[in-house]
Each structure stands twice: as C-alpha cells, then as structure tokens.
Amino acid sequence: xxDLAKRMSLIKPSPTIAVTxxxxxxxxEGKKICVLAAGEPYFDTxxxxxxxxxxxxxxxxxxxxxxxxxxxxxxxxxxxxxxxxNLEYKLNQICVGAGAKxxxxxxxxxIIDPGDEAIIPAPYWVSYIDMVSLFGGLPxxxxxxxxxKLTPNLLESKITEKTKCLILNSPNNPAGIVYTYDELKSxxxxxxxxxxxxxxxxxxxxxxxxxxxxxxxxxxxxxxYDKTFVVNGVSKAYAMTGWRIGYIAxxxxxxxxxxxxxxxxxxxxxxxxxxxxxxxxxxDHSFLKExxxxxxxxxxxxxxxxxxxxxxxxxxxxxxxxxxxSCEGLLGKSTKSGKVMSNDLDFAEYLxxxxxxxxxxxxxxxxxxxxxxxxxxxxxxLKIGCNSIxxxxxxxx
Length: 397
Description:
Shape: globular
Strand order of the largest sheet: 2-8-7-6-5-3-4
Order of helices and strands: HEHHEHEHEHEHEHEEHHHEHEEEH
Distance between the termini: 49 Å
Structural class: alpha/beta
Mean pLDDT: 95
Low-confidence stretches: none
Number of helices: 13
C-alpha cells in the first residue's frame, strides 16, 4: 500500500521548473548553461517599490494581515481594475494570494467538482491541466493550431452540459498571442449562449504587450461580468516574481470561498510584499514603457536569429516574452552520434546536452513538436543562446 494519496497520480512536477532544475544541476558541475527556459524578467524590482517594502518593515508592518489581503492592497486592486480595465469591483470581490498560481489553484478548488469539464485552449500554461485534474475535473484541451487562438467554432464544439469553465490567457504563455477586442467579442457571443460556463481569465502578462491593445473579456462584454474571474498579479510587469503576490476579482460568493480555503492553508500573503504591491499598483508606472521597449527589441533580435536557423519557424509574438517555435522541419534528422530527432523532447534534450541551451519542449504546453524560448533574459544570454541554437540546427543531417 502506498502512503501517497491517489490524487498525487493526477499531477506531475512543473516541466518549466524541471528543465530549470536540470540546467542548474549542469551549472553546478561547472558547465556554462544558457537558460532560455524560465519565465522571469531579467530586470530588478523598481526602487520605489523596494523602498515601500523597506518602509513597511521599519514601521513594524510585519504582523498577520487579513487573510484575503490588506485593505490598502485590495483598494489598490479595485482602483487598478477600474483605471486599466474599466471594471468595477467592491472589496469583498477581491482576494489576494501568494502569487497568481496560488489564486488559480484556490479558484479551481472552490468551483470544480469531480467530472466537471474545463476547456483549455492549447498551447496553454503548464499548470492549468494539473490544477484542474487534482480536483477531479476533466481538462478538455482544444488544439489551436491556427494562430494559436481559440475560435468561436472551436469553443462551441467543446461545450457540454458538464462544462464548468473556460480558461483564457492573453497575452499567452507560451505563444505570446494576444486576443483582439473583436476576437474576444466573438468568443463572448458564444459564451452568452451557455450561462452555466464560467470564464477564468489569466491576465498576468497584461502590461507586456507590443503591437496590440490589451482587453479582458468582461471589459469587452459586460454581460459576462458575473461569470468571469479575473486573475492577475505583480510578478511579470513589475519584476516581482519572488514577492509572490497575485489576486482574483469576481463574484463575491466564490471569492469568499477562496478566502476561506486560504484561511485553512497559507493564511494571509506576506505582509511586506503586500505593502510593496500597493506601491507597484498605485505608484510610478513610467518604467513600464522603457522595459516594454527592451522586451520588444529582444523579441525582434530573436526572431531575426531564428529566421536563419534551418528547420525552425515561428510567428511573431504580440505579448509576454516567449517564442513558441516549431521544430517540425528538424524531425527525422540526426546528430553526428546518430541520435534521431523524433520529437520536441529529443530536440530540447539535444540543445541542453550538446549545446548547453535550456528550452522547454512544446508538449508540456499541449502542442507537440514546438519549443518555448524565453527572451526575458539578458541580451548577452540571448545572443549566446540563439547562436548555439543555430549551430545545433546546422549540425543536424
């Protein structure tokens, strides 16, 4: 008899963390690994946000806070959603957690019963599948091979009486696609026909967007307001990944349930990180423009490099800081030692072991024979990594 609960067989370690850990092990052996795997901005947290955290420590704000977040932070979130997204919420419709990941986990725990279906467009962020599965839900994966976007027809073909929610992520991890106003409006018209379907919108990359304008679905179609749960946080835009602050906005009964769950698990998020997040949301945002330009420049640098790599092809991402690159053109080719590239797992392993470049296989995101490349790292690392990838492709025959 195993000491582990049966539910543990429903989940697996995060592939992105697994690749990063393997790369770190190789680093500890003295190898210089170029890590293009992690979704973590290279930038530091802005000084005015760090100062707010230091001030909160000096003022003794190091005690327990309300389980669902401080009044000041929830108020800052309400103001942000009104300012940036034209969405109005009350304080009892907001819950703050230890990162957007925890908030999503608690949301699925609160709304999914065994047998409930969750529609998940692929490519998707790796944790959606495992979170839904852990609570007995059934992930209904929709392969979106046309521009990596969910279409109204694809969506409607997957909705059943058991559908509990649709998960939308824009800008998207891993493909960097951004849904336009019109695209969200078309999706919304389908959802209006099925009032039993909730919408979970993961907006964590909202401020990292290049050639499009950001919209979230409840903003586009106000009639979906009561069925939509907006999930966001400070990790990506404000380079605060380690501070672990995320939040959810939605119907008060569900948000209250999430708060109750949190009261029996982690309790309140870190008090100092909450003070920093207040400053992030309320304070100076001028740095975002410069950082977005840097990301865009790095995106353009990578696409130029990838265009010269034989066998690889990629569309231009409109947001986030990832490329989702097809390696179909390399399948069937062999290394000098005779190893055949049968799929994206083989290619990712080849890059790491032979060329010391860490990327994530596309199968982890629901689509085979792609790799995800993060350009959130430094320009120097991008240059090293891209040149190594080009050489790796050229050496296959």
